[in-house]
Amino acid sequence: MTAASTERGCALVLGADGFIGNAICRALGDAGLTVIPAARNAEALARLRDELTATGVGCPRAITVDATDDAALTTAIASVATEHGLTVAVNNIGRGHRPVPLAEMDLAAFDDVVAVTFRAVAVAMRAEIRAMRAGSGARAIVNVSSSAGTTGAPGMAAYTAAKHAVVGLTRTSAIDEGRRGIRINAVTPGPIESGPIMTQDPSVREQVGGYVPMGRMGSAEEVAAAVAWLASPASSYVTGAVLAVDGGRTA
């Protein structure tokens, strides 16, 4: 375990290669944690690591891993815990799909969404909890679900069901691990300016934001700030919580 990791604590961020994952890494780094980003996109991870290092964030390595490969994911998490310690784990894993009613959805596509959006989170949490049980001090897991994980969404049966499952897994695991000092929470972002919507015309983003009580879409940085708070000592008596970051959409 490196000296820097021991002093500041180490955060593993799965799904670090997108807008929200990038922002989470920066927020945790700004909070003084050593950050280890992990995702499938090696090129994006290399760019992120360079950016983090340039801004003074400790980033000793980046891990290229397919979250649906149980053995590879489990091994990656165990290696981080062994080499750096594991203080914080963020599971920002998920895959959407084209809106289609369940009755018309291809079952292979359904299974693919569930494998990435729910099962990979469960496999990751299993390894993270095992690693954290061997540690001491403040330890926190934050799962990135979605506002679709607490409500319904037309044509998004697989994604919505998987995100609901992440919320259930978060709450149940928080109960199971509470007395061991491992806090487990989730955030449920609403419409966020990230991913495919960023390729759309600004008028589309404005229209989507118009359905939100606050009158706009959220930013990746606003999601990251919520994650950083749940990972910090400031939320020391918070576990099993599902924090909506959606501008009031699910209110």
From TrEMBL:
Domain of life assignment: Bacteria
Record's keyword terms, sorted: Oxidoreductase
This protein's record includes keyword Oxidoreductase: yes
SUPFAM superfamilies xref list: NAD(P)-binding Rossmann-fold domains (SSF51735)
Family from the record: Belongs to the short-chain dehydrogenases/reductases (SDR) family.
Organism: Leifsonia sp. NPDC080035
InterPro entries: NAD(P)-bd_dom_sf, SDR_fam
Lineage of producing organism: Bacteria, Bacillati, Actinomycetota, Actinomycetes, Micrococcales
CDD domains found in the cross-reference section: SDR_c
Name of the protein described by the UniProt record: SDR family oxidoreductase
Entry's Gene Ontology molecular function annotations: oxidoreductase activity
Keyword Isomerase: no
